[in-house]
Each structure stands twice: as C-alpha cells, then as structure tokens.
Amino acid sequence: MRTLLKVVSVVRTSVRSFTPTRGPRGVSMLECRLGYTQNAVGEHTGKLSRCCSTSVEGQTHPSMLRHLTSKITATGPITVAEYMREVLTNPVSGYYVKNDMLGADGDFITSPEISQIFGELIGIWCVSEWMAAGKPEAFQLVELGPGRGSLTSDILRVFRQLQSALSGAAVSVHLVEVSPKLSQVQAECLTGEHTQVCVSDEEAVYRTGTSHTGLPISWYRRVEDVPRGFSIFLAHEFFDALPIHKFQRTEKGWREVMVDIDPEEPEKLRFVVFPAPTLASTTLVQADEKREHVEVCPEGGVIVQKLAKRIAEDGGAALIADYGHDGTKMDTFRSFKGHKLHDVLLAPGTADLTADVDFSYLRRLAGEEVACLGPITQRSFLKNMGIDTRLQVLLRNCHDAATRAQLIHSYDLLTNPEKMGQRFQFFSLLSRRRLAEPQEEGEGLKRRKKGRAPLPVAGFTPLGLQ
Fold it and tell me: What average pLDDT does the segment 252-272 reach?
C-alpha cells in the first residue's frame, strides 16, 4: 500500500467524495446511513448467516478508528483493500484476530453450522475426487479459513464411515488460519484441546494435534506453508473476506475509491474517488471492462494461482464455495452486524466486512494449467450431490418431531433459491489430467481408446442417486 501511495501526490482538498452506484432498487451498499429494511436488501440478507451478537449496536471501536485516522492523517486516503486488511486482520485489534465471530453466539453462521448434511456431502466430494485421481497413497485435506472447524469435523466423520474405501491412504489434515482465537476454537472442536502450540514465529506450523479419529492435524498461517503433495483444498466463505480494491469509471478514466476522514466530522470516515490514476487502477482493471464500478481482489487472485500451480504439479483439486457472481455485479462491499446490514465505515473493528467473489476473475487468474468448473448455485451442487436422498434417510431414521422439523428447516435454508440456494456458488479447480479423455491407438478398424473415460465430477453433474 505504501508503494501505491507514493505513486501519486495526495492533496486532500482535490479528492472528491464518492457517491456509490445504486442497484436496481436504488439501494447502495456504501451508504453512510444504511437504515434499510429486510425486504429492501433481501438479496444480501438472504445469506442469513452474517450476524453479530457480540457487539452492541452503535458501539465504537476507538482503538481501531484512532489507528485508521492516524494512518490517513499521516499518508492520505487509504485504499479499500488496506482498510479491510487493517479492520479484519490487524494483529493487535483486528476483527478476526480478537473475536470468535462464528456460530449462534458469534458474528455469523455458515452452512456447516446450519446442517451436518452440508459437511457430509463435501466429505463425499473429497473422497470422490481422491478416488478419481487413482487413490494416491498420501491424501492431504486442506481447508482455508476453517471457521470453528465444523466443516472439517463433518468431513472427518465421513472419512471414518468410509474407512474401508480409504484404507491404505495416509490421510492428514492441514488448516490455514490467521486467527489465534479461531485456531484454538478449531482445536477444541477437532482434537478436544489435545494440541501443541509452537512458540517460534519462524515455524511454518504453529499448532499441531491429533483428531478424535486419530488423524494428524497441523495449523499454518499461509497456504504456501502446507507441505507439497496430493491435496484437496477447501475454501468455504474464505475469499469473500479478502481485501478488495474498488474502482469507479469517470470521464478521465478509471479512478480508485479510497477511504478518507470526513472533513466535516473528523471522527468519521468517508469514501472518496482519488483524482489521479493509481498503480492499482492502471493495472487491475481489464481493458475491455464494461461495468461502471469494479471490485478486484488481487490477494484472492494470488491464492488461486498458488492453488492452481500445486494442483497442476502435485495433483488434487480445490473446491471454493462462496457467495459471488461471474463478473456481472458492481458494488457489493458491505458489512454485517446484529443480523443486519451495517455501515462499512462505522465503528470499524466491530462488524464483518465482505464482498461478493468475482469467479470470472478467479478463473482468469487460475490460468490454463488447471480446469475450472462452475460457478454453479449451491442448490444445484447439493442436489447433484444427493442432498434430497440424504435428507430422506435422516428423516426415515428420526422419530423426534423437533429434530425432523430442524432437518427440514436446515434443508430449506441451504437449498431455497430465496435464501442460500441461489446466492452461494460453487467453483472448482481440477488437474487437467483429471478430465483427460483416453487417447486412441491402432489404425483403421483396429483403433481403440487406451484407458478409461474420466469419471464425472461430483456436484457439477448429477450423481443419479435413487
């Protein structure tokens, strides 16, 4: 960010205020006074899971606000990416670093917390891709941003149930987590607190343990620290929290949206459009871009490139599940607090910041070394994976009325297009070898295909379960 700020000379009086573009309902996610009703932003609150109960409405976070205003006073307006990075992951007062923001008593609930079926189907997907790759001896399950560990816990339960199919495989679990607080929560969920913490910052692994089922688990801060080898990478609601840059089309070309101090109310922040091109605005926006407002997540692009490189070289697959779009949306940066949309610039550090994932950008950055599937809706993915069949099995074996009602309610939350079924998308990176058609050999009538046709990719094609 310092490099970016050196490229241009910041003159505060020359920076104009940014008026966000409005959606079809006249609603902007960047309004400084939100005051929206549930119906007015149904497409955003349809996520259902973003909520906060650990902070009082209107409560400020003076240390973070003071830190940001001091930074802006010293260097000038900061990018939205730097604002997100400071608010979410600042090592002293970052939102993700200090809080356990997940679950009913936290800041948001994710699909694995809603129903065990979700994690079970993801576990089946992992085993399916391992089998399609020829059942490699080493099988690394890698989750980026594991939350409370619920998804991994459900997957490991599936692994235990499919132990006969996994026999002979050396399965290990690798979690990429920057939050010390959350890593502790994950350890309690997955190991029952039986972990060892590495005190040296120079160690790639900062926590180790053994799962309830006897599998080794390791924690890392960066995906590049995970050992090489065949890996199934999972990223559920991970990319949406990575820092984004925001750009606005103007008469003079693309300009970057920045965060500045409100001159009329020095204790508040505001969005402004930077008057001159920045390094980001000249390098991150595509030449053929048609939209009026664009959000780009270069950090997400870098991570996808790392995943693609490892999958191409070591084998494996990546499954990314998040709410997003395929290069069509514009202004999606928003905040959630107390089950409601929250002003993204109000009381920084007390609410979640998020932006829809642009899957077209991830596909472009993944490159040609891997095959990309999706995005498809969560509803389609889960139905292809057999969620209806699994629900019927659970209902058939459940005789408690309250539990049956909860199963049906959870199913509706996950698959209903008006709730999470349409908003959430699934996207996958696969080794090109995984989808390679068998080659023909011989001549004339004796020509035949050598090898077997690739297996369908579960979730992205119907399994045909009865």
Answer: 97
Strand partners, 354: 334
* pLDDT at residue 462, as a whole number: 78
SS3 call for 367 = coil
DSSP labels, 145-193? S-TTSHHHHHHHHHHHHTTTTTTT-EEEEEEE---HHHHHHHHHHHHTT
At residue 281, the 3 state secondary structure works out as helix
Q: What DSSP state is assigned to residue 385?
A: T
Residues with Cβ within 8 Å of residue 91, at least 6 apart in sequence: 97
Structure tokens at 448: 């035949």
Residues recorded for the chain: 466
Tokens 């389609």: give the residue. 380
Strand 78-79, strand 293-296: pairing: unpaired
Beta strands in 177-315 (DSSP E): 195-197, 205-210, 216-220, 231-236, 245-250, 253-261, 269-273, 293-296
- Rounded-to-integer distance, Cα 178 and Cα 220, Å: 8
CB neighbours (10 Å) of residue 277? 16
| 140 in Cβ contact with 229 (< 8 Å) | yes
φ, ψ of residue 109 to 5 degrees: the values are: -110, 130
Model-wide pTM > 0.90: no
pLDDT band at 192 (very low <50, low <70, confident <90, very high): confident
Per-residue pLDDT of 274-333, as tens digits, reads: 999 999 999 999 999 999 999 999 999 999 999 999 999 999 999 999 999 999 999 999
